[in-house]
Amino acid sequence: MSLVIDIDQVRREASSLLDSQRRSDLGQYMTPSPIATFMASLFSFNGQAKLLDAGAGVGSLTSAFLDKALQEGTSVDAEAWEIDDILGGYLKNTFDDFIHHGQGKIKASIHASDFIEDATLSIQFDGNNRYTHAILNPPYKKISAHSKHRKLLRMVGIETVNLYTAFVALTVLLMKQGGEVVAIIPRSFCNGSYYRPFRNLILRTCSIRQLHLFESRNQAFRDDAVLQENLIIHLVKGEQQGTVIVSTSCDGKFLDYHQTTFDASAIVKPGDAEQFIHIPTATEQISSPTHCTHTLQDIGLEVCTGAVVDFRMKDYWRDEPSDNTAPLLYPHHFSDGALCWPKPHKKPNALLLTNDVRKWLMPRGHYVLVKRFTAKEERRRLVAYYLPFDALNAEHIGFENHWNIFHIEKHGIDEDTARGIATFLNSTSLDEHFRVFSGHTQVNATDLRNMRYPSRELLRILGQRAKDQPNNQDNIDRLIEELEIA
After folding, report:
1. For the sheet containing 244-249, what is the strand order?
2. Is the CATH number 3.10.180.10 carried by domain 4-267?
3. Which CATH architecture has domain 302-485?
4. Does residue 65 carry a pLDDT above 90?
5. What is the pTM of this model?
6. What is the DSSP letter of 240?
7. How many whole angstroms separate alpha carbon 346 and alpha carbon 340?
8. pLDDT digits over 303-323, tens only?
9. pLDDT tens-digit readout, 370-400
10. CATH 3.40.50.150 occupies which residues in the chain?
11. Which of these, 486, 476, 366, lies nearest to 431 by C-alpha position?
């Protein structure tokens, strides 16, 4: 018996009835049945299960779990949260079908209430970790620093910035020892400082049993046109961390499914204070390029995010530069590695020089700029540009917020080091290594600080060799290879 095959029709019908604005507000993106079935297949079953599904929608995930449990001869008491009335109606019908056909093995209840409110209350006053299994596709939406949700989460020791990590964190706290959590969530939690407390929580309380990557960013939730790099994570509460299965498929059909087992040290580097979660695959390098043994502090460099948030300085925008303006650089001002400024664009080319503006600028110098955002389909995740001292005839320069800037105490770097850093960052070997732990398409300054670099001396040698050489990928990789052989 299988009831899962009809759930996609239910999901599409329910989706068509939802108000688009409310759907966006609640982060409602429901799971296709092939993904739900795969997620349910990851669980262990031992006769009895107490299931949690928070943000259950029409029941795509729970129905896949119940279907698998019945095949395994397991009785299930399912508890689901769904705050939307329309989805809640469909969810009740899904549960009723399973209760009717489950021959007494299925019990289910629905909470039409706020999961964060209910969960934080239960954690504080109930004291019972009552769930053996949890299957989740939590909502994806930022949490305001001063919101009620943020305050409730802090009351149970959870510090996070998005609903999806809040739901997973609360679920982990509600699980019994040995309880299993399988969730499909954005990959953005794997690195970056904002998600460090969340990583610390799950790594402290759980083992990671499996991570599954979708190689195509727009296929997992294709019906909802969601462009987000997602993964499926399988956690076991209280289990000692062992090896980790890393699996991949192009999309949610799993036709090209492949898995490899890695030591835990390949996933979270021992001694890493940030606890970045690296996700190597069979075709990727998991070790740093040769000679990368130095921190930024070791080599005397710093990196920061561009200080100019343009919409906050709209009164000072200027389309064309003049004597009383400073250049404002965006990523679109670079093409094929070369600066093209000023450039006709909807964004400004300069900022009016006033006392309010000057504090956001940096003095003229040699800098290395790294794009903060790239499309997953772009050939490189790390895209760096060398900005020479003489590229702009201006005393001060504005770097827009979509940049990361390598500098020394907010000033420029010597030319050879700057050229060397840019060449190193644009190498294929580093980019392959970077993709292992950089889960999202944003490159954070924290990510760049957490990397290891060649020594200052080697960077200068690399910069000297790169000078007057063609700035193409083959040449960059040749220079890196020669440096590693030397």
Report:
1. 106-111, 75-81, 48-54, 131-136, 175-186, 230-237, 206-214, 244-249, 258-262
2. no
3. Alpha-Beta Complex (3.90)
4. yes
5. 0.69
6. P
7. 15
8. 999 999 999 999 999 999 999
9. 999 876 556 778 999 999 999 999 999 999 9
10. 4-267
11. 476
